[in-house]
Amino acid sequence: AYAAAAPQRAMRPTDGTDCLLITGTAPEGAPRVLGGRQPLREAFFEGDDLFIGGPGIGDLTVGQQLQFVRSYGKVRHPDTNQVIADAIGLLGFAEVLAVDPERALVRVTKSCREIEVGEYLLEPIDRAVPDVAEVPDFDPARLITPDDSDPVVILGDLESVISEEGDERVGTSAKEAYGQRDVVVMDQGSGGGWAAGDIVTMYRAEIALQTKTSAAQYTPRPLAIGLVVAVGDNASAILIIEGDAAVQIGDRVRKVDATN
Question: Across the chain, what does the average pLDDT equal?
Answer without folding.
Answer: 82
